[in-house]
Amino acid sequence: MNFGGLQEIVRVLCLAQRKAGHSVTIGCWTNASANVVAEAQLQDAGVQIVYLRRGAQGQLIGGKKYLTLKLMQHLGRGKADILHVHNPFYHYLYGGIAARAAGSTKVVETMHATVWLEGKRKWRLVFWIGAMCTDTIVSVCAEVESVIRSRFFLPGRKFSVIENGIDLARFLAVPPRTSGNEIVIGTVGRMFREKNHNLLLAAFAQLRVRHNNIRLRILGEGFLKAELTEQRAKLGLDGVVEFCGVSNDVPAYLSTLDLFVLPSASEAMPLSLLEAIASGLPVVATAVGNVPRMVEITASGWTCPPGDVDALAGALEAAITCDELREKGERAREKVSEYYSVERMSHDYEQLYLKLIHK
């Protein structure tokens, strides 16, 4: 229940399912949450939140056997028709085993990313075993499914693609930008390696040499904060690069920007990019995962190869010197509304659930 794209998908999907009249319970790995606003919103909507394995202070309770037994209490005939698990690792495996032991609960697994495949070898084994206990593996974009199919031998009937959707209303409500001499560039993302803030700072430093009317704002926290703070100082950017922490009001933050940048080394279907486009921002993004298709469908901006500081600086320069920068962002709002609404995503999942239940 912390901040992140996966957590946001769970939040909006559960709210849409409640609105459609379904009974929804979220089983959390931990209740050491940093997003109490989201928890309160879900509970107010009638979503039950169950903390499966940790105590009030985040301490571990029990072990693997305890967790499996706890899950089985919530699954089975008359208790849960569908267990929807998000991303792999051990809770995914335990969920699949518990559902199979309970007997009648169908298991849906949504894959939000594939970067974990580069981690420990045992994670891949855990995923494969869990996948064999799963009825359907949903990829958030075709690129994720392609990677999973190429890495694992699994029956083709297990695969499905349901693209992410977002709560559009909050972002469509962001008013159009007014023209000004200063251009504010911004990004949203955890300060982790795959988000590649180091590359963004280096590219921005190149750009700042030629354009002194630009600033950079970064929303997000993470273990790389100290390293990025040191890099900012070494590049002489202390006065023009702002670290904004975290916020529950992302639309308000996006309203302060003129251009959104996504410098990631790895992504599947980033919600931050959809949110920026829906708020009327033109975008510059690295061509990873489903990003090129998202930018092409919405005609919202520029893409460049990942990991190339010169290419990112060049794409940013093309954007800030574009005569129709603001108009480009506003035109893209219509397309994001057509393709990436939470209503469309929720409907697609509901149809999948019904297909599995009545199979």
Question: How are the elements arranged and paired?
Answer:
Blueprint: H1 5-19, E1 25-28, H2 36-44, E2 48-51, H3 64-72, E3 82-86, H4 90-102, E4 106-111, H5 121-132, E5 136-139, H6 142-151, E6 159-161, H7 168-172, E7 183-188, H8 197-210, E8 214-219, H9 225-234, E9 241-243, H10 250-254, E10 259-262, H11 271-278, E11 283-286, H12 291-298, E12 301-304, H13 309-320, H14 325-339, H15 342-357
Explain what you see.
By secondary structure, the protein is an alpha/beta fold. It folds into two domains: 5-165 and 341-357, Rossmann fold; 168-339, Glycogen Phosphorylase B (Rossmann fold), CATH 3.40.50.2000. The chain has helices at 5-19, 36-44, 64-72, 90-102, 121-132, 142-151, 168-172, 197-210, 225-234, 250-254, 271-278, 291-298, 309-320, 325-339, 342-357; strands spanning 25-28, 48-51, 82-86, 106-111, 136-139, 159-161, 183-188, 214-219, 241-243, 259-262, 283-286, 301-304. It has a six-stranded parallel beta sheet, sandwiched between helices. It is globular, with a radius of gyration of 21 Å. The two termini are 32 Å apart.
Structural class: alpha/beta
Query: How confident overall, as mean pLDDT?
Result: 91
In the CATH scheme, the class of the largest domain would be Alpha Beta
Strand tally, please? 12
Distance between the termini: 32 Å
* Number of domain modules: 2
Percent of residues in helices comes to 40-55%
Biggest β-sheet strands, sense, barrel: 6 strands, parallel
Any idea what the radius of gyration is?
21 Å
Count of alpha/pi helices = 15
CATH H-level name of the largest domain... which superfamily? Answer: Glycogen Phosphorylase B
Strand content: 5-15%
CATH topology of the largest domain: Rossmann fold
State the CATH architecture of the largest domain: 3-Layer(aba) Sandwich
**Helix-strand pattern:** HEHEHEHEHEHEHEHEHEHEHEHEHHH
Q: Per the principal axes of the C-alpha atoms, what is the gross shape?
A: globular
